[in-house]
Amino acid sequence: MHEKLEKNDIHDLVKRAAAGSETAFSDLLDRYAPLINRSVASFRYCGMESEDLSQEAIIALLQAVRTFRSDSGVSFGLYAKICITNSLITAAKKRAASAPVFSYEEERERSDEGANDPSVVLGEVERAETIVRSLRKELSGFENRVFDLYLAGYTAKETAALLSKQEKSISNALFRIRGKLKKMLS
């Protein structure tokens, strides 16, 4: 399992992951997998597949890594939990706005498949890591910059100003990024 990491060790991992270290992010993802799994499990009846929720949670963890400030007085674990929860709430709301209605029993059957099997959970985490790495490879340099700023919480308008581009260009890049992610997930 994990040995207990000191606050400075976690901050070091976060800094290295924010600087682009896949190993550091993988270590953080491994360390915070229980948080991700609990968060995903708490949203299992929202109408989204657990795989989709896991992806949202991993992207939120990545965003937390990139936006965390160690001088804020908040631990990274708490910050990551808030980011993940907020991301899952947003995803669930979007899904609810466009989702067909399932009965409670249908939704329970759909979400309980493999929920208690550690190998299934571990497989989902490993697959999510692979997807994030693969997505990065599929994105152009511009799309990666837009994706980084999106994960950091910038709006399309703010991103356009930072990159000296039209807001429409940023919106189009975000659309392409989502399309590439959906293609990878299908």
How would you portray this structure in words?
The chain is an all-alpha fold and 186 residues long. It is 76% helix and 0% strand. The mean pLDDT is 79.
Topology:
Layout: H1 7-18, H2 22-31, H3 33-42, H4 50-67, H5 76-98, H6 104-112, H7 118-138, H8 141-151, H9 156-163, H10 167-185
Helix pairs in contact: 1-2, 1-4, 3-4, 3-5, 4-5, 4-7, 7-10, 8-10, 9-10
Please outline what is shown here.
This protein is mostly helical. 76% of the residues lie in helices and 0% in strands.
Tally of helical segments: 10
Give the H and E element order: HHHHHHHHHH
Quote the distance from N terminus to C terminus.
32 Å
User: How much of the polypeptide forms β-strand, as a percent range?
Assistant: under 5%
Instruction: Give the biggest sheet.
Output: none
**Runs with pLDDT <50, length 5+?**
none
CATH class of one domain: Mainly Alpha
The radius of gyration is 17 Å
* Shape annotation: globular
Question: What structural class should be given to the helix and strand makeup?
Answer: mainly alpha
The number of distinct β-strands equals 0
Q: Tell me the CATH topology of one domain.
A: Rna Polymerase Sigma Factor, Chain: A
The appropriate CATH architecture of one domain is Orthogonal Bundle
The helicity comes to over 70%
Mean pLDDT: 79
